[in-house]
Amino acid sequence: MILEVNGIEFQYKSKEVLKDIRFHLEKNEILSILGPNGVGKTTLLKCMNAILKPKSGTILVDKEDVLKLEQIEVARRMGYVPQRCEPARLTAFDAVLLGRMPHMKWNITPEDVMLVEATIKKLHLEDMALRYIDELSGGELQKVGIARAIAQNPKLLLLDEPTSSLDLRNQLEILDTVREVVRKENVSAIMTMHDLNLALRYSDKFLFLKNGTIFAAGTMADITPQIIQEVYGVPVTIQNYMDVAVVIPTHTA
Amino acid sequence: MNSEKGEIARRYREHTGRKLTLILAGIALLLVITVLSISTGSADIPPADVIRTLAGQSVSVTLDSIIWNVRLPQVLTAIVAGAGLAVAGVVMQSILRNPLGSPFTLGISNAAAFGAAFSVIILGAGSTSSQLGDAVTINSPYVTTIAAFVFAMLVTLVILAFSRIRGTSPEVMILVGVAMGSLFTAGTMFLQYFADDVQLASMVFWTFGDTSRASWDELILITVIVAASIIYFTLNRWKYNAIDAGDETAKGLGVNVEKVRLWGMMCASFVTAIIVAFLGVIGFVGLICPHMARRIIGDDHRFLITGSIVIGSLLLLSADTAARVLMQPYQLPVAVLTSFLGAPTFIYLILRGKRI
């Protein structure tokens, strides 16, 4: 078990946002956090690497309590990819090199440079390695963000809505990349998702949030149209098309 | 395409090597201009004599006196102040995530000037010498510096508070800066109203920054502070790169963003305060030099910090030399020239929009 979350509670200015969150994740698994807008998906994700401090509960990564670690120690174990990476006049190589920061003393070593090169190749970013990231498209920038998180050499990847504001092709490419990395690199991933169909297609496990707590959790086999209807308030049916589960809203105006 | 191992790393090293070359070229240029600057003035000295005198070989007693007591302190002051203002600007731009950040645009310079004037007029930390009219002798440099720093910090804390409440959008920051700048300019005017004639004349001191005022002792004090801040900023260069990528990315990389922001702003304000206390307000250097450096070597703080320092020194030294020569026999305060350069650049930066 790579991750074990027990009884997480989070308050924002005395307003309870998350309560009694518990789940666990195995190696090489992808977990999607699902639920309506404002339910606390991103908050939960940020609690995982202590960007936000939960009021109570424990988060164990490889049996170590994240909430008792220094922020830099957390960064050596988890890579975080925010919804939007800010562009700057840096090359993609520089941006990925930043992922070595939690591991460096005063400056980068030749090993860091080689590791970044390997990461860039892994994600097939060779062509943009020396381009400035303020000239990249949204999809390319997102891939650089993922490459940076992988360069951190983490046990767990955290992705905040990795496909929002991307076109169809880029959505699939990004999630293919995540899946490839998770399968090959001995890491696990947690991502918050809005697109149910993409989530079903790429995740091994699901967590449905409702009213600040877990409404349902499990694998593909556990997901029913009733759960989705309860969580999102929209009647749906789940159909299989060539072995891919597809959620179709049956609600008519 | 580049399947060979090490190929991308090699090209990357070439890329960073170019940046290093540019910085070294800038330093070489700075040395040349330093010699030229020492040789120009009301009495022109051949550059060869300048080099000989600096090397310790006395050419003549008069030259020794002009170079060691007049020209060299002024030239070094311009170099150090330019470096300090530029490095303060580049760090403020990064940690406030705001391209329009600089000691001057955020009102910190004006607040420091008020603090320095306050210490001299109210706390009696200096005496005004009437025979020159525009000169203030600072008797207790520490009191003056501390007063300048206290007021600079006050503005810094207001700015940090605003950035917490309203975010660091350029508009909000600059409006807060304008408000703070006007407030302390008004404060300085208030002091002027109660000052006597000699004091009044002397208070123009802080309004027009001038590099010819610093004595060797003051120059050494400024140099120590600027050098210490450069070391501190350089140690944090990776953290500024991380913050450039966004607060959340930086936190995910293990950076304590709030701490870096607070200490960075304090350090940058301190540098600003000491330069303003001894030289007066020199506007826009902290704003335009980092942007010139960004244009030439990009946003990577491993090179940008040094690049901004070199350009800051180059710009202030060149402007200072020009100010000495332009209206001979009168010497213009260099701040007049930097403002003439800076105001159009500032407007240009705003016109160019979000990505500067």
From TrEMBL, chain A:
Enzyme class: translocase
Record InterPro entries: AAA+_ATPase (IPR003593), ABC_transporter-like_ATP-bd (IPR003439), ABC_transporter-like_CS (IPR017871), Metal_Ion_Import_ABC (IPR050153), P-loop_NTPase (IPR027417)
SUPFAM superfamilies in alphabetical order: P-loop containing nucleoside triphosphate hydrolases
Residues annotated as domain ABC transporter: 3-236
Gene Ontology MF term list: ABC-type vitamin B12 transporter activity; ATP binding; ATP hydrolysis activity
Role according to the record: Required for corrinoid utilization. Probably part of the ABC transporter complex BtuCDF involved in cobalamin (vitamin B12) import. Probably responsible for energy coupling to the transport system.
Keyword vocabulary terms for this entry: ATP-binding, Nucleotide-binding, Transport
Descriptive protein name: Cobalamin import ATP-binding protein BtuD
Similarity-based family: Belongs to the ABC transporter superfamily.
Cross-referenced PANTHER family: METAL TRANSPORT SYSTEM ATP-BINDING PROTEIN TM_0124-RELATED, MOLYBDATE IMPORT ATP-BINDING PROTEIN MOLC
Domain of life: Archaea
EC number: 7.6.2.8
Organism: Methanolobus halotolerans
SMART domains in alphabetical order: AAA (SM00382)
Catalytic activity: an R-cob(III)alamin(out) + ATP + H2O = an R-cob(III)alamin(in) + ADP + phosphate + H(+)
Gene3D superfamilies associated with the record: P-loop containing nucleotide triphosphate hydrolases
Presence of the UniProt keyword Transport in the record: yes
TrEMBL record, chain B:
Subcellular location field: Cell membrane
Lipid bilayer topology: Multi-pass membrane protein
Subunit description: The complex is composed of two ATP-binding proteins (BtuD), two transmembrane proteins (BtuC) and a solute-binding protein (BtuF).
Keyword Membrane: yes
Short name of one Pfam family: FecCD
Species of origin: Methanolobus halotolerans
Family recorded in the similarity comment: Belongs to the binding-protein-dependent transport system permease family. FecCD subfamily.
InterPro entries: ABC_BtuC-like (IPR037294), ABC_transptr_permease_BtuC (IPR000522)
Listed GO MF terms: transmembrane transporter activity
GO terms of biological process kind: siderophore-iron import into cell
Protein name: Cobalamin import system permease protein BtuC
GO cellular component terms listed in the entry, alphabetical order: plasma membrane
Keywords: Cell membrane, Membrane, Transmembrane, Transmembrane helix, Transport
Domain of life from the UniProt record: Archaea
Taxon lineage: Archaea, Methanobacteriati, Methanobacteriota, Stenosarchaea group, Methanomicrobia
Function of the molecule: Required for corrinoid utilization. Probably part of the ABC transporter complex BtuCDF involved in cobalamin (vitamin B12) import. Probably involved in the translocation of the substrate across the membrane.
